[in-house]
Amino acid sequence: MSFFDIIQILDSTIRLATPLLLACLAGLFSERSGIVDIGLEGKMLVAAFFSAAVAALTGDVWLGMLAGIAASMVFALIHGVASITFRGDQLISGVAINFLAAGMTVLIAQDWFQQGSRTPALTGEARFDTLDLPFAEALSGVPFLGPLYADALSGHTILVYVGFLAVPATWWVLFRTRFGLRLRAVGENPGAVDTAGVSVNRLRYAAVLIAGLLCGLAGAYLATGLAAGFTKDMTAGRGFIALAALIFAKWRPWYALFACLLFGFLQALSNRYSTLDLGLIEIPNAFVLALPYILTVVILAGFVGRATPPRAGGEPYIKER
Amino acid sequence: MSDPAIELRGISKSFGPVHANKDIDLRVMPGTIHGIIGENGAGKSTLMSILYGFYKADRGEIHVRGNKVDIPDSQAAIRAGIGMVFQHFKLVQNFTVLENIVLGAEEGALLKTSLGRARKLLKQLSDEYELHVDPDARIENLGVGMQQRVEILKALYRQADILILDEPTGVLTPSEADHLFRILEGLKREGKTIILITHKLREIMEVTDTVSVMRRGEMTATVKTAETDPEELAELMVGRKVLLQVDKAPAKTGETVLEVRNLQVVDESGVERVRKISLEVKRGEILGIAGVAGNGQSELLEVLGGMREGTGEVLLNGAPLPLAGAGSDARTRRRVGVGHVPEDRQTEGLIMNFYAWENVGFGYHDDPRYNRGPLMNNHALREDAEAKIAKFDVRPANCWHTARNFSGGNQQKIVIARELEREPDLLLVGQPTRGVDIGAIEFIHEQIVALRDQGKAILLVSVELDEIMSLSDRIAVMFDGRIMGERLPADTNERELGLLMAGITDTEHEHSHDEIEQNLAQSSGKAG
Question: Do B93 and A184 touch (CB under 8 A)?
């Protein structure tokens, strides 16, 4: 493996980690408020479709992104109504959203574009352009760090940078603001929030909608940044890997960054090599792809410290004396 | 005369067909401690929840300091100067004391300024009312007494001058309860009004100025505490004369039934819950285990009941009982004559969505009487259940009700009926009267004593010291997984037992409350 290979793998790690990271932070907001969200996958998928479809129809990727976010937030709202207002089972609601998204995107895609459940390939203004970080050109000559900066870190679309900046932003909101304090409290003990005179439902809706926004960005990036258009089931389980990353990260923003980079790296690795030759043994890439799940099980089993989920997670809040 | 701090006029509230509160009138004078007493389900908590904006009354008016107010939510209650300390604390376990106090009453969108100001104000409040607590401690590392202080501070921080405490002493040791009462007296001196909800007559007599009695959703009487006595209050609560003392003859003990030697229990997270304890229970005696919840009593019961594994030696009628692996399960325990009334009837004693008759058969469903070949003989089981329900006066006497639809006392009677009617050699009983009303308590106590008088051995675990004192023939006190000492009920008193429960064996000398609390906080910190 040459230095060039490594730079390339790191470059694609960053690209592949971005949708995971955005979805993971979406899950973080939702679950920190006590609403379990296994519908990340479905929300990403509708966002991917609507952003690609609107971008294809209007030729404007920004309109596409807004449409993707809107679609994802509508789905988030459905999850919210089902699990907050009607106190339904959050897992069932999440599963329903995933199914609804998988079926609906394919159906509408076929109806609108008649290209076998896909959108036309996006080009030009209908796709996110890459951004060069400042001085990327100038620094590319510096040995080792230069290529790392110019080729791996620079040259991604704006959503990649948004995703990475969302990490400190999430941390700040969660741990430095009143909203964050209440959000964390409502996921731990909604009764405490309620008796303090703060609306549990309003907080949870806010969290769920933020999750919708972030999933919207993740989906838009998938279809208009990472790929050039929507294809059937293009999220390919990323919503679930993001959930795994969330557990791996113990519901903390900075840990989420590292978890998503690690899982992105594993994806990048398996994309590049069909088998991984470690000299003595060869590891098939299916195993590399399964590693995020395996690692998550290891974490859940408590081998690497305890991962304590928010205490009130998954339970609808019912006022009681 | 000044306006009452709180005046309720004609408050009514129904939940479906149940009248939780019927036309309640109540006047609470400022600067007093006003007790509200009543059995479980009498409507005390509903009434207070209405006052705190948790429920909306169907009818009636609330006046605070002479002004009619509308309390649609907790926010409105807080604005009206009402603070509430719930029975189950409303604290975020992994937040600090300061964060919990600030939650919902922050001064701006950023935490830094709010927390800074709260820290100063908290210092003032703690000094003023002697409510000392470390603002940076995490709630999960604090003992229950401390957590309760945080709840009181929360209310004071929100400038409450009317403080409602719902069953505040349920989780406290006697010395902690005394300290709480001193705090309440202090608050009263500062002009605060306090409403104390409890079902414990002793507390009412000790601290209140006035007491109101509730029964079946109605306010039956309001009297000056100085002009009443416990017997009269109990009668007002229940509607008939009740025996407050258990009537029992001295124990006639026989040979040893249960012998425990060096029993050790380590829980899932590796914490040693029971630390090599030894004890024995003889025929015809009740051994009471006293202690603050979480000091290993539950684990002791669970191991003996076959619900948990342990190490050491346990003999039943001289034969060893396996503590782990094959034959250590609850089913085998039952077969060799161990009855078990678990501490939590709702999760361990009953299946709440099953019928009463199904619940009466649980644990004994392989009894040949209930079986016909490979099928259950439900008819026989139902007949048996009906007989038991009649004998134990379970109300309503309908075996087609689900367990959920019985009151706490009647649920407990179902469990007791199931276990006692098997005439076990050894009966394990955990918290037999938790959440059970006075009338049913009397009945359940009589049944337990009757079993003792048949020559059975009984191991009773209870956090209610009164219950331990009146039922037990011998008392062992557990603290932090150890037995701190054994006493005879006649030779001890609440004070001594209270000190043992706090881990202090040197009971001859005076001990400061700080010392006691420190001890308790350490043990519960470890346990948490």
Answer: no
B297 inside domain: yes
Does residue B229 sit in the same domain as residue B264? no
Same domain, B279 and B172: no
Query: Does A131 reach chain B within 8 Å, measured CB to CB?
Result: no
Chain A partners within 8 Å of B52 (Cβ)? 195
Angle between helices A61-80 and A40-58 (to 10 degrees): 150
- Inform me whether the C-beta atom of residue A189 falls under 8 Å from chain B C-beta atoms: yes
Which of these three, B210, B238, B266, is where a domain ends? B238
pLDDT at position B145: 85
Over chain B, what is the mean pLDDT? 89
Q: How far is A122 from chain B (nearest CA, A)?
A: 42
CA B387 to chain centre: 30
Tell me the pTM: 0.81
Same-domain check for residues B329 and B221 = no
Residues of B with CB under 8 A from a CB of A: 45-46, 48-49, 52, 54, 73-78, 84, 86, 88, 90-95, 99-100, 102-106, 108-112, 114, 154, 166
Which chain B residues are closer than 8 Å to A191 by Cβ?
86, 88, 90
H helix runs in A273-314, sequence order: 285-300
Q: What is the pLDDT of residue B393?
A: 87
Pairwise CA distance, residues B100 & B147, whole Å: 10
Q: Within 10 Å of residue A289's Cβ, how many Cβ atoms?
A: 17
Based on the fold, state whether residues B314 and B219 are members of the same structural domain: no
Q: Within this chain, do residues B197 and B332 fall inside the same structural domain, yes or no?
A: no
How close does chain A come to B507, measured CA to CA in Å? 38
d(CA A156, CA A44): 20
A279 pLDDT above the threshold of 80: no
Cβ of B111 and A178 within 8 Å? yes
Co-location of B277 and B204 in the same domain: no
Do B106 and A188 make contact, defined as CB atoms within 8 angstroms? no
Report chain A residues whose CB lies below 8 A from the CB of B75. 197-198
Whether residue A198 is predicted with pLDDT greater than 90 in this model: the reply is: yes
Calpha distance B363→B326 (Å, rounded): 17
Count of structural domains, chain B:
2
Percentage of chain A beyond pLDDT 90 is 69
* Tens digits of residue pLDDT in B193-226: 999 998 788 889 999 999 999 988 899 999 999 9
Using a CB-CB distance cutoff of 8 angstroms, which residues of chain A are in contact with residue B154? 196
Nearest CA-CA distance, residue B217 and chain A, Å: 16
Instruction: Answer whether B108 sits within 8 Å of A185, measured CB to CB.
Output: no
pLDDT digits (tens, 9 = 90+) for A75-92: 999 999 999 999 999 999
Tokens of B130: 């002697």
User: Which domain range does residue B209 map to?
Assistant: 6-238
Left if phi > 0, otherwise alpha if psi is -120 to 50, otherwise beta: which for B31? Answer: left
* Residue B379, both tokens: 């008819």
